[in-house]
């Protein structure tokens, strides 16, 4: 636990120096204002979950992968590998810090664009944290074998990110609904939708079961990729 806290403090410092917080908060404010004044309120219960699954992936999937690749290029990763920090410390810290900041960004957007509109705002938070963890683990796992942001993004990172965002079409009722259930990010999206509209029993079963399974599976995938490509010590 002490090791994890140490990595979290380091990650927060690195994220601050990388201007994630300084840039992320103003961007969230701008998006909130755009939704508030340019989008009719009747459309917000659909557009806000769509915004979350498509835009906020940059904070978790892309930024998490970028942090790993920067750590590789600057020698930070090599220094951490000679310490007592383990693979789980490293990847859990990224998932915790990035998911929490994505939640902060989302709260800012919601409070500006649609204060009081959600019937169950707690489910929005559950969906966002679930999506943040899933996205972060996937981004880190996919980036583990790469040496540069360019090699990660094209085509692997960009393609996977695009596929994971596709369930937003289900909110618009476009395409065959059964297909969107095959993409794990549909589960946290359903939690976000539950903040605004009731779900059926089947939808709840899918959201809970696949949501938890996807986070656990992506964490294991990330861990195994690190074990194959990045030699951290193990406790």
Structure description:
It is a single chain. Helix 4 (57-74) packs parallel to helix 7 (121-143). This protein starts with a helix and ends in a 6-residue tail after the last helix. With 235 residues, the chain is mainly alpha-helical. The protein has helices spanning 2-17, 20-38, 44-55, 57-74, 76-81, 87-113, 121-143, 149-165, 168-171, 177-180, 186-194, 201-229. The chain has one domain (2-229). The chain is built from 12 helices and no strands.
Query: Describe the biggest sheet?
Result: none
Compute the number of helices. Answer: 12
Give the SSE order as H and E letters.
Answer: HHHHHHHHHHHH
What fraction of residues sit in β-strands? under 5%
Which shape, going by the Cα principal axes? globular
Report, as a whole number of angstroms, the end-to-end distance: 12 Å
Which consecutive residue ranges, at least 5 long each, have pLDDT under 50? none
Please bin the fraction of helical residues. over 70%
The tally of structural domains comes to 1
Give keywords:
235 residues; mainly alpha
Outline of the structure:
The protein is built from twelve helices and no strands. It has 235 residues and is mainly α.
Topology of this structure?
Elements lengths: L1 H16 L2 H19 L5 H12 L1 H18 L1 H6 L5 H27 L7 H23 L5 H17 L2 H4 L5 H4 L5 H9 L6 H29 L6
Helix pairs in contact: 1-6, 2-6, 4-6, 4-7, 4-8, 6-7, 7-11, 7-12, 11-12
